[in-house]
Amino acid sequence: MIRHLLKMAWNQKRANLWISIEILLSFLVLCIVLTTGAYYVINYQLPLGFSYEDVWHVRLGDRHIGSPESDQPQKVHSNFVQSKTKVSLALESFDEIEATGYVFLVPFKDLGGTAFIYSRDREKLRVRSNRASIGVKDVLQLEIVQGRWFERGDEALNGDPVIINPSLSHILFGSENPVGKSIERVPHRQFMSSWKEKNGKRVLEQSSEMVTEEPFRVVGVIADFRTNEFEPSAPFLMEFYPEGEHSRYPNMLIRLRSGTGAVFGETLLKRLRSAGKGWTFQLESLEQYRASTHKRHWAFIAAGGIVAGMLVLMASLGLLGVLWQNVTQRTSEIGLRRALGGSARNISGQILGELLVVTTIAVGFGMALIGQLAIFDLLDIDRGEVFAGGVLGSAFVIYLVVTVCALYPSWLATRVQPVEALHYE
Questions:
Q1: 3-state class (DSSP) for residue 265
Q2: Neighbouring C-beta atoms of residue 345, cutoff 10 Å
Q3: How far apart are CA 132 and CA 140, in angstroms?
Q4: How many CB atoms lie within 10 A of CB 147?
Q5: What is the dihedral of CA 378, 383, 389, 390, to 10 degrees?
Q6: Vertex 17 angle, CA 14 and 23, to 5°
Q7: Which residues on adjacent β-strands are paired with residue 61?
Q8: Which one, of 419, 417, 106, lies nearest residue 285 by Cα?
């Protein structure tokens, strides 16, 4: 039976070639869209590891930039320290603010930073990183799994203090307790700028050198921390951001008391602008950044879904037209089979069987191509069950569409009477 269907499919190779190409393209696009969509949905349901509700981001900008006069650096620094002190006092005066902290990269808004470290086997690892001050724990309500959070005086430790997540802890230390252990950093090139006197003028010179920084010192472990809800948890570390009066922080996070209205933002900005003369302030909530991230990702999925749907629709119409024409052209053959005793069920099964053989060849070739993408990690999906589900789901949809498209032409084939074959002789 299978050999007969293959032979019949080969005899219709020209028509079946175009059918195969349409099915192949539809399968590939559908597979990528379904796999990516399922990957996003599964990751979206995982815990973030922090709380973003009632958290606002205050972007700080210092406009004290002038010509490199001899007294300018000291003047700029003095103005900065005074403004920073006034801003801190202004924040403390609000009962609506529960906690404040500073980060280098803002969740949902900025892409993750990168730190290069050595594994236990001296392999170079690239892990995501960020910097946070002491207050960030209360602002984002982070969960400490082992050890502790940053404390004042940690900058004096032997090694730069860091907080890591369980994923990185497992990679570096296995089942051992990571608290108190060191993480060796990969040497990197550091760029430096300095003012120098040349011909009676101050000139800014830049230079670079390879430096090996002190190892990280693990002081604690937090629950898996994800700043993108559509990506899985990845090895991550948080570096200590000291809150000294000389430190510059571009991004402040503040947690408001529950129920504080958005109108409070105007009052806060007015107070901050009054305290920080010459500074600029921009205020947005993490929920706004999160909503923007959602729009980008769901728009990508929607666009992919529309393209996949259009391809499947075009393939369906093409299949319907080709099969209809195929039945019309084979009226003589079908009528002869009916005259020789072929039942309507056998005729219908033949039409459907030929199409399923062509579909299986196209889907099999498509699975081979998709498998190559997975082997070379071009889909950026690290969950095998999601990938397998996307492929099998796409195959199911393709077979369903093909079967539905074949129902009417195969029914037409059963209506051919033996006498009609005489008209084509």
A1: helix
A2: 10
A3: 11
A4: 16
A5: -30
A6: 150
A7: 280
A8: 106
Instruction: Indicate the helix (H) or strand (E) that contains 281.
Output: strand 279-285
| CA atoms of 53 and 254, how far apart (whole Å) | 11
User: Is residue 116 a contact partner of residue 189, using CB atoms and an 8 Å limit?
Assistant: no
How far is it, in rounded angstroms, from Cα 105 to Cα 109? 8
pLDDT-derived band at 145, boundaries 50, 70, 90: very high
Token pair of 66, please?
Answer: 């002038």
- The string of DSSP codes covering 102-135 is EESS-TTTSPPEEEEEE-TTS-EEEEEEEEE-TT
Whether the Cβ atoms of residue 399 and residue 311 lie closer than 8 Å to each other: no
Alpha-carbon span 386 to 380, nearest angstrom: 12
Rg, the chain, Cα only:
33
What's the token pair of residue 192?
A: 């430096």
CB 112 within 8 A of CB 219: no
DSSP state for residue 161 in the 8-state scheme: E
Residues pairing with 420 in the sheet:
none
- 352-411 confidence digits (pLDDT tens): 777 788 888 888 888 888 877 766 665 556 566 777 788 888 889 888 888 877 776 666
pLDDT digits (tens, 9 = 90+) for 337-348: 656 666 666 766
- Cα separation values, 19 from 223, 278, 291, 360, Å: 51, 68, 42, 12
Other beta carbons within 10 Å of 52: 20
How many residues are listed for the chain in this entry? 425
Residue linked to tokens 């890591």: 164
E-assigned strand segments in 138-235:
144-147, 160-164, 182-183, 188-198, 201-211, 216-222
Rounded percentage of the chain residues whose pLDDT exceeds 70: 76
> For residue range 258-290, what is the model confidence (pLDDT) as tens digits?
888 878 888 888 888 888 777 888 889 999 999
Q: Which of 290, 227, 253, 256 is nearest to 54 (CA)?
A: 256
Cross-strand pairs, 238: 130, 163
DSSP state of 185: B
- State whether residue 332 is helix, strand or coil: helix
CA separation for the pair 354, 4 (Å, rounded): 9
